Amino acid sequence: MTTGGSIGSPYVLETPLGPVALMFEDGCLAGLSFLDGPFPETPAGVPAGADNVDQAANKAADKPPSKAAGEALELVRHELDLYFEGKLRGFSIPLKLSGPPFYVRVWHALTTIPFGETRTYRQVAAQVGSPEAFRAVGNACAANPIAIIVPCHRVVASCGLGGYGGGLHRKEWLLRHEFGR
């Protein structure tokens, strides 16, 4: 996992939860967002919103990906297929996380939550060394640029599900999928 840099050209991939836009930089996955938004970050020059990202993705599809991005795209496609088939519990995809330092620490911490387990916002705050910053952890989860693979869906409120940028229906689906229900 690396940090820093801007997000590159988007590519669209179909999933059981709907189409996602994938963004790569330096052969690493830098973004995975559901196309019906919201989008934590958008590629440079692309206004926020599903229609604009979809248009950019279609324009990017006219250009072949770089060799590094093409290899990363195939790895993401393969691992997401296995994940949705219930055959993969952890991702090996190289990530490039960009954002405020606290957010990046939270996103790294999220990748340590095992498949089929959840943590509360307060537990994640304690894990990153800021036990009272549970609301800030929620903000970091809301700004997570790499849905599913940086598993913010595994972070729940102490009294229920909490929120999810991809929609609560997706959070519920992902948790049921991981818990085998």
Biggest beta sheet summary: 3 strands, antiparallel
The poorly predicted ranges are 1-7, 39-54
Task: State Rg.
Answer: 16 Å
- What level of helicity do the residues show? 25-40%
Q: Say how many strands there are.
A: 7
Average of per-residue pLDDT values:
84
The total count of helices amounts to 6
Instruction: Order the strands across the largest sheet as they lie in space.
Output: 2-3-4
Q: What sort of overall outline do the alpha carbons produce when their principal axes are compared?
A: globular
Which structural class best describes the helix and strand composition? Answer: alpha/beta
Count the domains: 2
Which SSEs are present, and which pair or pack?
Layout: E1 2-3, E2 10-13, E3 20-25, E4 28-34, H1 50-61, H2 67-84, E5 96-97, H3 101-110, E6 119-120, H4 121-127, H5 134-142, E7 155-156, H6 168-179
Parallel strand pairs: 1-5, 6-7
Antiparallel strand pairs: 2-3, 3-4
Helix pairs in contact: 3-5, 4-5
